[in-house]
Write a structure and sequence with these properties.
Blueprint: E1 8-12, H1 17-28, E2 32-37, H2 40-48, E3 58-62, H3 68-82, E4 87-90, H4 105-133, E5 136-141, H5 153-173, E6 178-185, H6 191-199, H7 204-213, H8 223-233, E7 245-248
Helix pairs in contact: 1-8, 3-4, 4-5
The structure holds NADP nicotinamide-adenine-dinucleotide phosphate.
C-alpha cells in the first residue's frame, strides 16, 4: 500500500532536478504522474524512467507554465490521458540573477512569469477539478532566497510571493477539501545550482563543498530531501496542514 495509490499527480518542471526527484518518489508510492516541462521529448523520456507501481501510468507533456493557453491544454491532456488530477506540484523555475542596477526588465518579467504567473495559471486550471471532487493537494516551490539574497531581487520577490500565494490558497480552498503548502529549499544539488557555480566561475564540486561547509548539517541537499517532504505534505497524513511554508534547508537560515 502506497500513500498515493490511485492518485494522479502533476509536477511542473519535472524533466530533471527536484521535480524529477519528486515525481520518482510519488511514483514509488503508487501515484500516476504527469511530468510537465518545456521540452516534450525531455518530459516524455523522464516519464518513461519513473518507477511506476502496478496499474499506475505516466505521461510527459510539453508546456510553458507562464502561458495560459499552454497550461490549459496541458491540464486537459492530463485529465484525458490519466483520468483526473489530485495533486499539483508547482516546481518549474528559472533564475536570471544580477545585481539590481544591472537587472533588465526582461530578467524581472521572465522570473515572475515562470514562478508566480506559472503557479497561478497551473493552480487555476487544476482547482476546478479539485473543487468539483472536493479533494486536492497543492505544493508550491519557494526558496530560502525568499528571505533575501544578493543578486536575486527578482527570484527572491517571486519566491516570497509564492508564500503569500500559498497562504491565500489555504484560506480560499480549505473549505473544498484542498490543502496548499509550500517548501522552501536551501541549496539543492541540481543543474540550477550547477549553473550558479558556472556563473561564479567556480568548479561545481568546489561550489557544493563550500555550501556544505557553511550549512549547520554540513552537507548540501539533494532532490530526494525535497521529495520526502513533498510526499508528506501531499499525503493525507498532512490534511490538517495548510497555507504553510516548510523550510527544507539543513538549517541554513537559522543563525
Ligand atoms: P532545474 O534543475 O533547473 O529544473 C527546472 C526545470 O523547470 C527544468 O527542466 C526547466 O526546463 C523547467 N522549466 C523552466 N521554465 C519552465 C516553464 N516556463 N514551463 C515549464 N517548465 C519550465 O531546477 P531545480 O533546481 O530542480 O529547481 C526546481 C524548483 O525548486 C524551482 O522552482 C527552483 O526555483 C526551486 N528551488 C531550487 C533550489 C536549488 O538549490 N536547486 C533551491 C530553492 C528553490 P528547461 O531546462 O527546458 O529550462
Amino acid at each position: 500500500m502506497g500513500r498515493f495509490d490511485g492518485r494522479i499527480a502533476v509536477i511542473t518542471g519535472a524533466a530533471r532536478g527536484i521535480g524529477f526527484g519528486t515525481a520518482t518518489r510519488f511514483a514509488e508510492e503508487g501515484a500516476s504522474v504527469a511530468i510537465i516541462d518545456l521540452d516534450e521529448t525531455a518530459a516524455a523520456e523522464a516519464a518513461a524512467r519513473l518507477p511506476l507501481t502496478d496499474g499506475a501510468k505516466a505521461v510527459g507533456i510539453g508546456a510553458d507554465v507562464s502561458d495560459g493557453g499552454s497550461v490549459d491544454a496541458a491540464v486537459a491532456r492530463v485529465v484525458e490521458e490519466l483520468g483526473g488530477i489530485h495533486i499539483l506540484v508547482n516546481n518549474a523555475g528559472i533564475t536570471r540573477d544580477n545585481l539590481l542596477f544591472k537587472m533588465s526588465e526582461d530578467d524581472w518579467d521572465l522570473v515572475m512569469g515562470v514562478h508566480l504567473k506559472g503557479a497561478f495559471l497551473m493552480t487555476k486550471a487544476a482547482q476546478k477539478h479539485f473543487v468539483a471532487q472536493k479533494y486536492g493537494k497543492i505544493l508550491n516551490l519557494s526558496s530560502v532566497s525568499a528571505l533575501g539574497n544578493r543578486g536575486q531581487a527578482n527570484y527572491s520577490a517571486a519566491k516570497m510571493g509564492v508564500q503569500g500565494f500559498t497562504r491565500t490558497l489555504g484560506i480560499e480552498l480549505g473549505p473544498f477539501g484542498i490543502n496548499a503548502n509550500a517548501i522552501a529549499p536551501g541549496f539543492i544539488a541540481t543543474e540550477m545550482t550547477d549553473a550558479t557555480a558556472a556563473r561564479l566561475k567556480m568548479d561545481v564540486d568546489e561550489f557544493r563543498a563550500l555550501n556544505a561547509e557553511a550549512n549547520p548539517v554540513r552537507r548540501v541537499g539533494f532532490p530526494e530531501d525535497i521529495a520526502a517532504a513533498a510526499a508528506f505534505l501531499c499525503s493525507d497524513e498532512a490534511s490538517y496542514i495548510t497555507g504553510q511554508t516548510l523550510y527544507v534547508d539543513g538549517g541554513a537560515k537559522l543563525g
